[in-house]
Every structure is written in C-alpha cells, then in structure tokens.
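Need residues for this backbone.
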C-alpha cells in the first residue's frame, strides 16, 4: 500500500482525490434532492416519511451513507490541505502569469464557499439527521404501518423564517461551489480539451443551478404554505 500512500500524499494525488470525492458527492446530491422533493408531494408527508424509513432500513443504502460521510470528510480534509498549499504557493513570485483576472469569483473563493457549506452541513445534521437517528420523532400510521414522522420536523423547521432563509442562502453558496467544482473535477481527471471543456463548463453551470434551485425551493414552498 506504500505506492498508494505516496500517490495520494503528493499535490497531484490530493487533487485527484478531491476530484473523485467531489464527483461522488455531485452524484449523491442528485439522489438526495430527488428524495427531498417528496416533501412537496402535497400528501401531508406520506411519501417523504415512507421514503425516509426505507432509506434508513435498507442495508445497501446504509452502507452507501457511511461511505458518503467518509467521502465528505476526505473532501474537507483534502480541501484544507490544498488551500494551505495554494496560499503558500502564492507567496512565491512566478515569472509566468496565472491569469487570475480570468478566474471566476467561485474559483477564487472555493475555500470560503467550502467553509459556509461545512457550517450548513453541521447545522443540517444537528437539525435533521440527529433527530431522525436518535428515535425522538413522533409516529404516524399509513395503511396500518407505523413510520417516524420526519416530515413534521422538517415542516416545523422550514416554518421558521430565519432557518428557511439560512437554508436558501446556503443553497446559493452551494450553487457557486458546484459551478466551479463540477468542471474543475473533470479537468483534473484529464478531460481538458478545447472541444469538450466549454460543454463541461456549461453542463456544470446548468447542474449547479438546477440542484441549488431544487434544494432552495423546498423551504420556500413549505414556508409559504405555513
């Protein structure tokens, strides 16, 4: 395993690891959004509660969720290390221009965006995930089967204007983070070509808008419904 350790310990290895974990999380967000959109089904939370119960009791899904937490942790640690290395590199004067003026706001502030998203993840886990996992939810019965009423917790949280606003703002920052991270991940993996790169960047922007808007619309609709 020494070759693997040496490979990921270098800057290139860390960037590859950052890209791979990032792409996994990009896929996860699509799946997570699809599940969360069931909050807007208009059935009093039935679809969401059944979905959440099945997700929590499916062995394969539980295994994937543990992997997801691991990838998030690796992504965060890798991001911190690469940010510190980049800051150290900027102190050195290069003869070749880096074309920073052409860089997007998101690319220049990925560390800041990452910190904001980390704060959101912690708040999200404390507000929702912990309550779902520690068995403190009230029960609700559908067709003779008892389910934890996670919808009630989410509905109450999004009825609070401060939390709903915080959630929406964080989704805007998530969109910026994804817009750069999407194309950057593919470029790091070698998909950097004048023919394909513009398409990948446009696809990344489209993805980031749809995902961020998809998550943001949930608290907006639930708050307006009261």
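Answer:
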């Amino acid at each position: 395993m020494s070759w693997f350790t040496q490979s990921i310990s270098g800057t290139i290895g860390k960037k590859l690891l950052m890209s791979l974990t990032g792409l996994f999380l990009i896929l996860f967000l699509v799946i997570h959004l699809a599940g969360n959109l069931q909050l807007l089904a208009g059935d009093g939370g039935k679809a969401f509660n059944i979905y959440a119960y099945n997700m929590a009791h499916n062995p394969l899904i539980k295994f994937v969720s543990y992997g997801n937490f691991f990838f998030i942790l690796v992504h965060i640690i890798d991001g911190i290390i690469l940010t510190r290395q980049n800051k150290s590199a900027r102190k050195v004067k290069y003869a070749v221009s880096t074309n920073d003026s052409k860089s997007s706001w998101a690319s220049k502030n990925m560390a800041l965006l990452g910190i904001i998203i980390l704060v959101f993840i912690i708040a999200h886990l404390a507000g929702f995930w912990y309550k779902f996992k520690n068995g403190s939810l009230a029960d609700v019965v559908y067709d003779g089967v008892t389910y934890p009423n996670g919808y009630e917790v989410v509905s109450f949280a999004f009825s609070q204007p401060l939390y709903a606003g915080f959630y929406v703002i964080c989704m805007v920052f998530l969109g910026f983070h994804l817009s750069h991270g999407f194309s950057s991940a593919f470029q790091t993996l070698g998909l950097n070509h004048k023919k394909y790169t513009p398409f990948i960047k446009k696809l990344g922007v489209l993805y980031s808008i749809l995902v961020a808007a998809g998550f943001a619309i949930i608290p907006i609709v639930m708050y307006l419904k009261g």
